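Protein modeling request. Please complete all fields; requests missing the sequence field cannot be processed.
Requester role: graduate student
Desired output: 3D structure, token encoding
Chains: 1
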Amino acid sequence: MNRLFLFLGGMMKKRVLAVFLLCLLLLTSCADTTATMKEVQFVMSTVVSLDLRDHATPVLMKTLMNRLSEIDVLMSLQKRGSDIDRLNQSQGEVVTVDPSTYHVIEKALEYSRVAGGTFDPSIGHLVNLWGIGTEKAKLPTQEEIEEALQSRGLENIELLGNNQLRLHGETQVDIGAIAKGYAADEMVRIAKEAGVKSAIFNLGGNVYVLGSKGKSPFRVGIQNPFSDRDDYLGIVDVQDTSVVTSGNYERFFVADDGKRYHHILDPQTGYPAESELSGVTVISSNSTMADAFSTAIFVMGLEKGMDFIESIEGVEALFVTNTRDVYMTSGLRSSFTLTDNTFRLVE
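Delivered output (347 residues):
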């Protein structure tokens, strides 16, 4: 009898254990795929909104936010001890940087060459000189600008492999015009690896939508460059792509001469770019590239910028002029809707 009891008891324990393991497996494999979560923080000098529409967990949200902070610390021009700061202070010595920083500098050089230098990561000295977006913003003298221009040059940024670089001459690197694009791409990569199918990542002028909104595409507003940050002039229907907007309204200061100076610098003149444009939007599944090209085409101006984007497969753009005219590349016409009748859509 005792042996039978022990035998039956052992069988019961094994059965209970088997049921427990089965339940644990089911709980693990059947995570809440409908869970949503949204978080807003100030990161990378802008207000960031991460909206996970499925597979959301506090751990995933923390991972995303931590990655944004990490990119900011690595790639900031102003933060002491960042990869960019160490590189700019290296005085010709070889510097080892994080693989992410090396990758972004490498892509920045590539996109600069493609865009004919209208986007230029070698103007760090010029960016620091103007200080636009910081408390040190000022109108430099012509002599200071000419001196800063002499330090620029892609050939002065030497990629040595193995995450090592060397700067030559007085060149200083600034990848601020591309880092947010890379950060958006990273948000999508991390979310996809966690199984997320639908999400909106808004990095202050750089929006990346993952997937779609149910059976419909997401609708992203295009910033009105003559109004407040949340006011838009039109809507573009998109999915699985980034919408990157740049304009002369984002960061600027008014100097003693009464003129407003914005942050998008022309690498040729050393001054804020002057053209007929007030804002541009680039749409591409590669947000790093879109970020670089939004700066490039703003500097190029309407005609050259339009021709440039039309020559690149998988990239579209919208241009807003100072006279409130809206132009767009051919592939964008079917998905864009003008909603503000104070603007004129030019076909």
